[in-house]
Automatic annotation (TrEMBL):
The chain crosses the membrane at residues 46-68, 80-101. GO terms for cellular component: membrane. It comes from Glycine max. One of its GO terms (molecular function) is transmembrane transporter activity. The keyword Transmembrane helix applies. This is Major facilitator superfamily (MFS) profile domain-containing protein. Belongs to the major facilitator superfamily. Sugar transporter (TC 2.A.1.1) family. It is found in: Membrane. The keyword Phosphoprotein does not apply. It comes from the Eukaryota. Keywords: Membrane, Sugar transport, Transmembrane, Transmembrane helix, Transport. Pfam families: Sugar_tr.
Length: 121
């Protein structure tokens, strides 16, 4: 685009003002720290997050993924097949999980998964 000198200088001035305002806003922000996570306003969120991480360990997926190659070798398959099969299953199911989470929301999915985990134990 062709601008006249006054239009061009006005655009440059507006951009410089935006950059200056953004830099000032960044300087006024406080530094985040780990200790800030333990404030009372974040306690519920932190408890749910850590609780979910602990519950995932009881699901058995971590153990299966760790021993995938050994399981497939002992079953008579070549060792790379375990990795390939795991990825071939995990990628589409993760995509499906993301789409379901966007559509249904987290709470119903977490309640259903918790219920199924409880009943299968």
């Amino acid at each position: 685009m062709l601008y006249s000198n006054s239009e061009e200088s006005m655009l440059i001035y507006q951009e410089a003002t935006e950059i200056k305002d953004y830099t000032e806003a960044l300087q006024h922000q406080t530094e985040a720290s780990i200790i800030g996570l333990f404030q009372s306003q974040y306690l519920k969120t932190l408890t749910v997050g850590v609780g979910l991480m602990i519950l995932q360990q009881f699901g058995g997926v971590s153990g299966f993924l760790f021993y995938t190659n050994s399981i497939f070798i002992s079953a008579g398959f070549w060792d790379s097949l375990g990795t390939i099969a795991t990825v071939a299953v995990k990628v589409p199911l993760t995509t499906l999980g993301v789409l379901l989470m966007d559509k249904c929301g987290r709470r119903p999915l977490l309640l259903e998964a918790s219920s199924q985990l409880y009943h299968s134990s």
